[in-house]
């Protein structure tokens, strides 16, 4: 019911994820970003894997070790899809045998696409190709562009209803955290939100760093 693209920006060290699903409130259960890595938990979701994975990344564990710990700690891991990218850009994932068909995974340099209940198993590889083709653009833009490519490639078998775009960089709080729930075209609505937020992103960071000099709205 879900497909996602996660990545570490090789230029800035930021981490991000773009995700969509036919289920409501998918980002709240599935997408977790921090300044030291990203964790995605999908299919029949165990939301506890997100904060647990970020905590393990803070302890210095690499992506493979984090995935191993998460699959050992969740009930019935054969139902789970889990992906992790660590501070070095290392990628690891688990896609259990009970992942809803069609399930597929693709990875590139510092990026990972996971999907289940897909129209076509090529959807994740199409997303990775788009992400890599947009090198040099802001991470959030690259992620949402990859999500759009997944939709154009067929997406999932049911209609998408929720989507999210999340980026963390340096700070414990996300510098991008945009969500759409129960919309007929959530990816298009997410694009509209990103275009509205994009020119203001740096100003909200400035409010945290130097409020006396930051612009107001």
Question: What does this entry look like structurally?
Answer:
The protein has a six-stranded antiparallel sheet. A four-stranded antiparallel sheet has the order 3-4-5-6. The protein has one domain (2-209): Aminohydrolase, N-terminal nucleophile (Ntn) domain (Glutamine Phosphoribosylpyrophosphate, subunit 1, domain 1), CATH 3.60.20.10. It has helices at 26-30, 49-58, 63-73, 123-133, 139-152, 186-197, 201-209; strands at residues 2-8, 15-21, 31-34, 37-43, 80-85, 91-95, 104-108, 111-115, 162-168, 176-181. It is an alpha+beta fold and 217 residues long.
Features of this protein?
single chain; alpha+beta; globular; Glutamine Phosphoribosylpyrophosphate, subunit 1, domain 1; 27% strand
Layout: helices, strands, pairs:
Elements: E1 2-8, E2 15-21, H1 26-30, E3 31-34, E4 37-43, H2 49-58, H3 63-73, E5 80-85, E6 91-95, E7 104-108, E8 111-115, H4 123-133, H5 139-152, E9 162-168, E10 176-181, H6 186-197, H7 201-209
Antiparallel strand pairs: 1-2, 1-8, 2-9, 3-4, 4-5, 5-6, 7-8, 9-10
Helix pairs in contact: 2-3, 4-5, 5-6
Using DSSP, what is the number of strands? 10
Q: Briefly note the structural class of the backbone.
A: alpha+beta
CATH class: Alpha Beta
Number of helical elements: 7
Structure summarized in a few sentences:
By secondary structure, the protein is of the alpha+beta class.
